[in-house]
C-alpha cells in the first residue's frame, strides 16, 4: 500500500490524444461578468454533496479532482460513499484493498494507511469498500462520531492542496462527517425538472452542521451538470439556479455526454479517457474556475 508522501514510480500524465472523436461544442457560459473567481488559500477541503442521487456527484468528484491534479495541485479524493464509485472510477478494485475509509471512520485507522496513489500524477484516493455500507449503524453509539473524518483529514492535510470528499446521496452520519470535515461544500445540480428537489433540506442540514460542528462551513460552489442544449428546460433550470445562488454558480456548465458516462467503466477520469471531449473541456475549465489560479504551495 502506498502512502501519499512516498515516492510514486513515474505516474503517467493524463493523455493528450483522444480515444475517439466526439462532436465539439462550446462550453456554456452565462452572459455578463466573466471575471475569474478570487483564489482561496490552500489547502482546501471541499465536500461534494447532494442528497439526491444520480446528479453527477461522483462524476464531479472524480473529474474535478483529476483536472485539479492536471493543473499541478496535489489532490486527494476521499470516497465516503458505500457504493465506492469514485474508487472504481479511479481504477481501484474495492475487493483488493488492505484498508479503506471504513477502517478510518470506524476503527480510526490513520488516513495515511488508507490512501492509494492512482496512476495519474498528483492524484490520490482514499477508497471506499463494501463494509462502509454498515458504518452508519456502527457510528450511532460511537464517541465523537461526527468528527472522526475531520480528525483523520487534519492529520494529512498539509500534504495536499485540495481534498475532495465524495459524500453519499443521503443526509446520514457519513455525510455529516463529510460536512464537518470540510470548509466548503460543492453542490452539483442537474439541469432537469427536479433539479432543486431536496436542495432546501440539504441547505438546512448544512446550516445545522455549521452551527453545531463546523462554523466555517459554507456553500462555495454550485456546478450545473447534465446540460442538454437541445431542451429549453435546461436553459430554464440554468436561469433559475443562477437567479437564486448568484455568483456561487460556476460560469462553466457540464454537458450531458455519452463519453462522461463511459469513462468510469474504464477506471479513468474523462481527461484521460477522451481528453478532447466536451466533458473533458468543461471539467478542465471548471478546475481553473474552482482553483481561482491559486499558486501551488512549495514542498
Describe the model.
The structure is a single chain. The chain is of the alpha/beta class. Helix content is 32%, strand content 12%. It contains 11 helices and 7 strands. The chain has helices at residues 57-70, 85-89, 101-106, 135-139, 148-154, 173-181, 199-212, 232-245, 258-262, 270-273, 278-291, and strands at 44-48, 75-79, 116-117, 123-126, 162-166, 184-190, 218-225. Strands 3-4-2-5-1-6-7 form a 7-stranded mixed beta sheet, with helices on both faces. α1 (57-70) crosses α11 and α5 (148-154) packs parallel to α6 (173-181). The protein is globular. The model is unreliable at 1-9, 16-27 and 29-33 (pLDDT under 50).
Q: How far apart lie the N and C ends?
A: 23 Å
Q: Strand order, biggest sheet? A: 3-4-2-5-1-6-7
Would you report the number of β strands? 7
pLDDT averaged residue by residue: 86
* Main sheet makeup: 7 strands, mixed
Rounded radius of gyration (Å): 18 Å
Q: Tell me the overall shape.
A: globular
Give the oligomeric state of the chains in this entry, treating copies of one chain as homo and distinct chains as hetero: single chain
Please state roughly what percent of the residues sit in beta strands, choosing from under 5%, 5-15%, 15-25%, 25-35%, 35-45% or over 45%.
5-15%
- Number of helices in the DSSP assignment: 11
Helix residue percentage: 25-40%
What class do helices, strands and sheet pairing give? alpha/beta
Amino acid at each position: 500500500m502506498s502512502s501519499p508522501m512516498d515516492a510514486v514510480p513515474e505516474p503517467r500524465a493524463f493523455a493528450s490524444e483522444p480515444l475517439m472523436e466526439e462532436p465539439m461544442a462550446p462550453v456554456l457560459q452565462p452572459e455578463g461578468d466573466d471575471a475569474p473567481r478570487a483564489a482561496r488559500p490552500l489547502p482546501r477541503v471541499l465536500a461534494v454533496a447532494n442528497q439526491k442521487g444520480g446528479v453527477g456527484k461522483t462524476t464531479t468528484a472524480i473529474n474535478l479532482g483529476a483536472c485539479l491534479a492536471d493543473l499541478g495541485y496535489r489532490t486527494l479524493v476521499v470516497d465516503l460513499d458505500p457504493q465506492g464509485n469514485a474508487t472504481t472510477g479511479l481504477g481501484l478494485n474495492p475487493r483488493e484493498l488492505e484498508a479503506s475509509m471504513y477502517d478510518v471512520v470506524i476503527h480510526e485507522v490513520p488516513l495515511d494507511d488508507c490512501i492509494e496513489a492512482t496512476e495519474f500524477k498528483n492524484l490520490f484516493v482514499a477508497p471506499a469498500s463494501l463494509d462502509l455500507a454498515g458504518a452508519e449503524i456502527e457510528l450511532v453509539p460511537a464517541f465523537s462520531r461526527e468528527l472522526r473524518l475531520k480528525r483523520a483529514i487534519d492529520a494529512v492535510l498539509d500534504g495536499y492542496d485540495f481534498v475532495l470528499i465524495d459524500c453519499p446521496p443521503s443526509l446520514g452520519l457519513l455525510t455529516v462527517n463529510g460536512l464537518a470535515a470540510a470548509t466548503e461544500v460543492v453542490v452539483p445540480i442537474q439541469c432537469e425538472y427536479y433539479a432543486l428537489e431536496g436542495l432546501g433540506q440539504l441547505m438546512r442540514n448544512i446550516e445545522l452542521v455549521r452551527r453545531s460542528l463546523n462554523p466555517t462551513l459554507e456553500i462555495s460552489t454550485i456546478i450545473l451538470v447534465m446540460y442538454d442544449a437541445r431542451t429549453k428546460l435546461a436553459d430554464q433550470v440554468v436561469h433559475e439556479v443562477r437567479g437564486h445562488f448568484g455568483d456561487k454558480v460556476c460560469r462553466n456548465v457540464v454537458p450531458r455526454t455519452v463519453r462522461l458516462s463511459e469513462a468510469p467503466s474504464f477506471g479513468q477520469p474523462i481527461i484521460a479517457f477522451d481528453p478532447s471531449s466536451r466533458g473533458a473541456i468543461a471539467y478542465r475549465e471548471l478546475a481553473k474556475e474552482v482553483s481561482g489560479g491559486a499558486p501551488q504551495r512549495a514542498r
